[in-house]
Amino acid sequence: MEEKVLMLLREKTNMYVSGEEVSRTLQVSRTAIWKYIGRLREKGYTIDSSPRRGYCLRAVPDLLIPFEIRHGLTTELLGRKIYAYATIDSTNRRARELAQDGASDGTIVVAEMQTEGRGRLGREWNSPQGGIWLSLILRPQIQPFKVQSITLLTAVVAAETTELIADVAVGIKWPNDLLLHGKKVAGILTEVSAEMDCVRYLIVGIGLNANVAITSFPESVKDIATSLLVQTGQAVQRTEWVRIFLQRFEQEYNYVVQHGFSAILKRWREYSITLGQDVVVHCAGQRIVGHAVDINEQGALLVETANGIEAFWAGEVSLHNE
Ligand code: BT5
């Protein structure tokens, strides 16, 4: 009901809507409406009220809550079911739990803060207030070996969305880092539950340091991390980022599941700061030096080494000049 009250006020933002009109339209008492208005104010909505004129919505908060994410969202599947938390241990962990309990394709989990945000290989992902910590539950009908391509797709869509919203130039470092002026602004963690030849579900986790102040990062990441706020001096509207990301992601994802990944790979190559560089790959305890020449159809990094071209599916890449 709160959402319905909000929708009515929203249609006439900056104009007064009488309590009587809201009450009549929604078939609830004026006292109940007063209560819903109170709850919306608690969430951060600025609503003026006047005994004679009624209620007037002045400003909406940039909160990652279902109302706000759904407002104007045009996806068919993605984000139709939203689990939102002020604080959670990890959105990926929660998404996995929901997926195991049968959550539907396209369900998303989002949080304002994570206390145990996860990176790859058990690493920590720092997730203070101001960021976007988001996980998608997907049930694609693809073979498990194609999962890596979905990580690349996520990186491309996250880069495009970020450029659009914050007007900055983002680079992608294979496989999953988004960099701004050489510092990490976002990371992606894809986790999969699969059988031999089919994917049961996929959790795609995206962490974007959107409006995170530099002082919110611990010493361990201060020098390697950055945020959109730090780079541009301006806060972005996180709900808008999430909406645009979901819309674009759904479009691209539907396309690649049907037609394959070539179009996305082309765009990934354009964003890549890894290709064409001398690199050091750390993989399965080994350190391999070479020249990054390309990625293949499945998203593996192709490196020209002393032994010829080698394909890497996982691992850590540092550019030779880092
Ligand atoms: C990643 O791992 O880059 C994947 C990060 C995925 C985070 C999202 S948030 C929503 C969802 N829920 C989760 O629990 N996780 C996902 P990796 O490539 O392993 O990078 C981890 C390394 O990045 C750490 O070891 C730090 O050095 C550094 N790091 C940690 N927090 C960071 C931050 N906020 N910004 C930039 N770098 C960070």
Bound molecules: biotinyl-5-AMP
Percent range of helical residues: 25-40%
Taken as a percent bin, the fraction of beta residues is 25-35%
For the record, give the distance between the C-alpha atoms at the N and C termini, rounded to a whole number.
Answer: 54 Å
The major pleated sheet works out as: 7 strands, mixed
Gross geometry: elongated
Write out key terms for the chains shown.
322 residues, alpha+beta, elongated, 15 strands, 34% helix, five-stranded antiparallel beta sheet, seven-stranded mixed beta sheet, binds biotinyl-5-AMP
Brief overview:
The protein has 10 helices and 15 strands.
Describe the protein's architecture and organization.
The protein has 322 residues and is an alpha+beta fold. It is built from 10 helices and 15 strands. It has helices at 2-11, 19-26, 30-43, 66-70, 91-100, 147-166, 219-222, 228-232, 238-259, 262-271, and strands at residues 16-17, 46-50, 54-59, 82-88, 108-114, 132-138, 171-173, 177-180, 183-194, 199-208, 278-283, 286-295, 301-305, 308-312, 316-319. Strand 11 (278-283) and strand 12 (286-295) form a beta hairpin. The longest helix is centred in the C-terminal third of the chain and has 22 residues, at 238-259. The radius of gyration is 22 Å and the shape is elongated. It starts with a helix and ends with a strand. It binds biotinyl-5-AMP. Residues 90-92, 114, 117-120, 123-127, 133-135, 176, 184, 187-189, 205-207, 209, 221, 224-225 line the site of biotinyl-5-AMP.
